[in-house]
Amino acid sequence: MTRSQIIYAALLLCAVTLALFLSFDFSGDYAINDDWGYSTPVRWWVLDRRLALTHWQSMPLITQLVLGVAWTEVFGFSQGALRQLNLVLALTTCTAIFASARALYLPVSISLLCAVLPLASPIFVGLSYSFMTDVPAAALVAGALFFFIRSFTRSCGGGLEYSIGVALLLLAVLLRQTSLALALALLVAEPVARGFTLKGFTRSLLVVAGVAAVYLAATALLRDQVGLPTYYGAKTSALLSFISDVFALNFGAFRQTAKALLVASAHFGLFALPIIPVLLEVLWRRGRRYILIAGGAAVALSAASLVAGVGVLSAEGGNILTGDGLGPRTIPGKTQVNVLVILVVTAVGHFALVCSVLAATLSVKATLRGNNAIKQGTKGSILLLVLTAVLTFAPHTVAYAAVFDRYALLPSILLIVVVLRVIDVEALSRTSIRFSAALVFVGFVISLTLTADYFRWQDARYNLISELLSGGIPAEDIDGGFEYNNLAAVIANPQGAVSMSRVDPANRTVRLKREPEPGDQIVATEQYTSLLGPRVGAIYAVR
């Protein structure tokens, strides 16, 4: 990289940083989605020096708790401060992706496109304004991947880079179990990158065994020191149930696999949507029929998704991107989106997916036919990215558990980098690259708008709850939605928080709703102005 290119990349990341931090007020001191379960242990340690966990975490979480404590010891504890930390980690993810793309010998322009592509996704941006584990895990895995790729592509072997990659991998596994996918991918990819030797394979095997041992030791430590959370082994139990059904020849179990793959395929396409101009240029040059094939395949996949009830904006397959906009609406109310919108959005996602697969496949075939040699280290690096993506998502396809859109986040990012690496980017016109960059910018603006709108809704919800509490209604009588109910419960009982179950608000006398029903007595109302439609929304507290 030239000095001017480095300056250009740094200025771009600085501009993105300012946009993320200054776009709207995200400092509301309330939890969103699942992050109440992850922020509360940080709260207890920073404010009370109490080492305790909540029942909700299904992962070790150790790395994120350490980062959260370190950050809030400096900036003070608040939910807004923890969101700032996640924004920093989101930008770290983008930087690691840029560095990985450059290590794979992609041009600066394409590397920058890879780096900012996640910012065009409402899922990535929305998660960045939370304390959910998805973005921190992505940052650690992306960082580890960069150092492994550097070690593979350097002629001297890159021993230091390899060691740093292993360290980041350990930190990632101490955050989320799914990061073990990178260790398993390393076992296969390293022999391809370096050539198979007994010494090299033994080293990879020791890394996998060491990482697994650290995870098991961390689990045992948590069990001994604070107790394992109620839902810690929930995903493992779901996986074992699936395996049991398969061994019992109950092949209906694979319906879960089909649904998970349909969810993942559509969301991968939506992540890849900004590079559609690039993909269409590649397909156009290979033959116009491929664009028609992509369209037909997209229609077929979307119809299958509709039949299975797993459209992109539907209840199953959503979590961050939903029919209501961004984020789950965890109080009762009808979703405004209709079936046609779900079908169109899902079809667009599948079209981008099929275009990506076709463009990559045709490019690889052309490379092989032309006998264009790809360096061994680069081959291993590409394989490392592919296997990490596949193995990260694979457990969700073989477990009886919800498959959320955010599970496709990291796999999609990695696979898009692979697609852009295997196509002939040197032959691309500047026009298609500029169109892709423009679509990234449009996606970024849309993502920020959706996120800001979500926070307006949250502000209204928690303002209404504060009004109810000020009016003398006890917290235990208010059904304020999933996040409020569970956070209030664990704050009230820190000693028993790790062994609790999800709060059942059925007997609470006052309930928040997005629209009152016949027979409801309205206690209070909080209006808010939406950036989307309907222009003016309201949340009701009813008896």
Descriptive account of the structure:
This protein is mainly alpha-helical and 543 residues long. It has two domains: 3-454, no CATH class; 455-542, no CATH class. Helices cover 64% and strands 5% of the residues. The strands form two sheets. The chain has a four-stranded mixed beta sheet. Strand 5 (522-529) and strand 6 form a beta hairpin. Helix 7 (134-153) runs antiparallel to helix 16 (376-397). The model has no long low-confidence stretch (mean pLDDT 89).
Q: How much is the average pLDDT?
A: 89
Number of helices: 19
- What is the H-and-E element order? HHHHHHHHHHHHHHEEHHHHEHEEE
When the domains are counted, the total is 2
Number of strands: 6
The first-to-last residue Cα distance is 64 Å
Q: Helix proportion of residues, in percent?
A: 55-70%
Structure classification: mainly alpha
Strand percentage, roughly? under 5%
Largest sheet report: 4 strands, mixed
- Overall 3D geometry? globular
Contiguous runs where pLDDT drops below 50 for at least 5 residues: none
Major β-sheet strand ordering:
3-4-6-5
Evaluate the radius of gyration.
Answer: 24 Å
List keywords for this structure.
543 residues, mainly alpha, 64% helix, globular, 19 helices, four-stranded mixed beta sheet, 5% strand
Quick recap:
The protein has 543 residues and is mostly helical. It is built from 19 helices and 6 strands.
Strand-helix topology:
Elements: H1 3-22, H2 36-48, H3 62-75, H4 79-103, H5 108-116, H6 122-128, H7 134-153, H8 159-173, H9 180-194, H10 198-225, H11 234-247, H12 254-272, H13 276-286, H14 289-308, E1 321-322, E2 325-326, H15 339-369, H16 376-397, H17 409-422, H18 430-470, E3 478-479, H19 482-492, E4 510-513, E5 522-529, E6 536-542
Parallel strand pairs: 3-4
Antiparallel strand pairs: 1-2, 4-6, 5-6
Helix pairs in contact: 1-4, 2-3, 4-5, 4-6, 4-7, 5-18, 6-18, 7-8, 7-9, 7-16, 8-10, 9-10, 9-16, 12-14, 12-15, 12-17, 13-15, 13-18, 14-15, 15-17, 16-17
